[in-house]
Amino acid sequence: MSNKDIIILGIESSCDDTSAAVLKNETILSNLIAGQSVHEDYGGVVPELASRAHQQNIVPVVDQALKKANISKNDIDAIAFTRGPGLLGSLIVGTSFAKSFSLGLGIPMVEVNHMKGHILAHFIDDPEREKPNFPFMCLTVSGGHTQLVVVNDYDDMEVVGTTKDDAAGEAFDKTAKLLGLPYPGGPIIDKYAQEGDPNIISFSKPEVPGFDYSFSGLKTNVLQVLEKANRKDPNFVKDNIKNICASLQGTIMDILFDKLVKAMRHFNIEEVAIAGGVSANSALRKRLKETGEEHGWKTHIPKFEYCTDNAAMIAIAGRYQFLEGNFADQSVSASARLKV
Fold this sequence. Notes:
The chain contains 9 helices and 10 strands.
């Protein structure tokens, strides 16, 4: 290994996935994720169960990540961990592990903002994808966040639009529950939507000033539309599930891209990326490509493995903190509501 090589161990534990990744410079050597099926019975993530599962998973996941990368713990130059935002109990497990690992090996640790990690995943080496040029706009869409972020540099980001209530991912999951679909509902709605007609049912779109979003009213409107239709036909949802999903997904995409187009024009930016768990959605990926072609934008779509919560994105974000010498000390604590 040359003196220029920098090895970063990334740790992600913000919600219900325990993940560890090994990064060499800007190349991922391993990226392992342990999911938690225990939450399926509850229709959502149970924080206490999540933190217990993280405690069980974190040491085996890190061990396997090191083995897959074919490196020793003594090869690691720094450990990067998710400080927030996320579930506090889950974040504490990752933060505590990072502090112990750092102390035991005498190596620095760097804290990473989870949302910045999603955005910076675009800078992981990938022969099939070109990295964004600064500045670019990032539409970050997940279960807990919907944000429009102007990215000026690796650590210079400005949130110019955010959700005032529910995030887009929540809108998917909550409406899926209304339709009787299992958790997580987003991927199932996406699957059904691909076979449905998005123009069959009309759902309302909120009027929100500026570049901000709102999705809570959409869930209420879906409930009202379904209750009215079910009074006429008790089998309405069952018989029209694909069209309902297509119309719902189409409405969410319209809301997202209406604000994205306005923000791109306002800030005069010509490169755009998507990030976050919902960036795995087929309609979102397709709409970004089509809208980019229509407006002459350069578009950046992440690999599926970097869309959902993963430690590779934490490692790459940690690399830039490491290069700047922005190290955390042993007094650092998890922050459930950490801002970008």
